[in-house]
Give the backbone structure.
Amino acid sequence: MVERVVFFVSDQTGVTAETLGHSLITQFAGQNFRQTTLPFIDSDDKANEAVRTINAAAEDAAVRPIVFSTMVQPDLREIVKTSAGLHLDIFDAFLQSLADEFDEAPEYRSGRAHGVSDIDAYMKRIEATNFALANDDGGVSRNYDVADVILVGVSRSGKTPTCLYLALQYGVYAANYPLTDDELENGKLPDFLLEHKHKLFGLTIAPERLREIRKERRPLGNYSSAQQVRFELREAEKIFRRYGIPSVNTTMFSIEEISSRILDSTGVERRVRP
Amino acid sequence: MVERVVFFVSDQTGVTAETLGHSLITQFAGQNFRQTTLPFIDSDDKANEAVRTINAAAEDAAVRPIVFSTMVQPDLREIVKTSAGLHLDIFDAFLQSLADEFDEAPEYRSGRAHGVSDIDAYMKRIEATNFALANDDGGVSRNYDVADVILVGVSRSGKTPTCLYLALQYGVYAANYPLTDDELENGKLPDFLLEHKHKLFGLTIAPERLREIRKERRPLGNYSSAQQVRFELREAEKIFRRYGIPSVNTTMFSIEEISSRILDSTGVERRVRP
C-alpha cells in the first residue's frame, strides 16, 4: 500500500486540524497514512519552514502529501498553501459563509478556540478533573450532592477514563463507584448511592472484552477468570434493571462515544465547550 | 446582542462537529451563541427529528440557526440539510477532494473516527490514563523508565490535568512530580528524577494566577500567600535553569496548548491520534 503523508498544520495547537483530518481520512481504508502535526505556525518564518517540511516529504514520497490546516490568519494560510500538498483548510471552507451570515468580519485571531481566553472555562475543567479524581473508584470524598452523574459498574468497565474525559472535555462533574462483591451478591445498592438514584448511570461490557482488559492488569487468578467476570457482569446488569438505572455497553465504543451517550441519555449539560 | 442558536449534528459523537464549529464561531465576537449537540443521528427517523428540532429553534429565533454537521452517510446528510439552518458539513466540503486525490471511493461508514474500531488505540489510551494516575503527584509507582515525559512544577501549576489530557488524547505516558519544600530550598532534584533528566519538562505559571487557583482549594494560610507563591515559583524556575529543563509558562494557555507545546518541544511521539 502506498504511504500517504498527512500534515496537520495550525497556528495554534493543531487539535482541530487533527480531529477534522482524522474524521476524513478514516473514510479511506485503501490508504496507509503517516501523520505529522506542525503546531504553532504563527509567523512568516514558521509558515515558510512548514512549507519546506511539506515539500521535503513530497519529494520523498510517491504521492503528494495531504495538508489539513486551521490557519486563522489569511496571510500565513496563503504561505502554507504554496506547498506541494493538497491543502484543505476549514477557515477557507467555512469562514466566509459565516461572515456573510453574521454580517460581521471575522477577527482572524488565532488561539481563540483552545486558548485560555476563557479563564473561567479553564478553571471549570480543572475543578471538574479534581472532582473526578477525588470521587474516583468510590473515593473518599463522595461529594455526590454536587455530582452531575455517578457511573457505576464492575472493575475495569471504563468508569475512570470516562469520568476524566467528561471532566476535561466538558467540565462535567462525574463520580464513579465500583460495585463491590457484597453488592453484587445481595443485589442491593448502598443508601448513599440510592439517595442520588437519578444521577446513576451504569457501564457494562462484554465478558470476553473485560477478561482481556483485566488480564493486562492481573493475568492470573479469579479477577480475570471467565467465571468471575461473567458472574460480576450478570449481577451488575441485574442491579441496573432492578433500580431502573440507564446503562451503556462499552464493548464497541470509544471513550468519546461512551461520554456522548451518557450526556445524551441523561441530559446532563456540558459546563464548557471544547 | 442577538442570540444565535448553533447545532452540532453528527451520526456519531459530535466531537468533531463541536471542535470544528467552536474554532469557527470563536472568530466572531459580535454574536451571542447558544450551543446544542445532537449526536447519534444515524437513521432517517432521527435525522427527521433533528430537522424538526432545528426548525423549531429557527421559528423561535430572530435569525436562522447555524448547523455544523459531520454526517458521513450522504442520505442522512441530505435530510439534515433540508432544515431551516445554515448547513456546514465537513464531508460535503472535503470528502470529494480526498476521494479524487486517492482515486478511491469513501466508505461512508460512520463511527470510524471515534469508534473503537481500533481496539488497540482504546487500550493504549486506557493504559496511558492508568499510568498517569499511578504516577500522579510523585505517585507511589514512579515507573519513570517507561514514561514518555515527566512534568515537574509546584503544586497547582497544571501538571495533573495536562498528564491526563496527554494520556486520553494521545496515549502518551506522562508522569508528574511536584517539587517539595526541600527541593525548592536547596535547589536540587532527587537522583531518581535526574536519572531521567532528558524526560523532565517544567511547568511554571504567573504568581497572581497561581494564587487564584490555590485560593479555590485553600483560601487561607501560607499555601496561597503572595510570599509563598512567589518563593516557590522563583525557586522552581531556578531549578529548571540549573538543570537545563525546558519549561512552559501555563498562565495564558489552555490544557490543549500546554500539551501541544510539550509534545512539540520534546518531540515525544503521539501513540494514538484523536
About this structure: Chain A has two domains: 3-102, 119-266. Chain A has a mean pLDDT of 92.
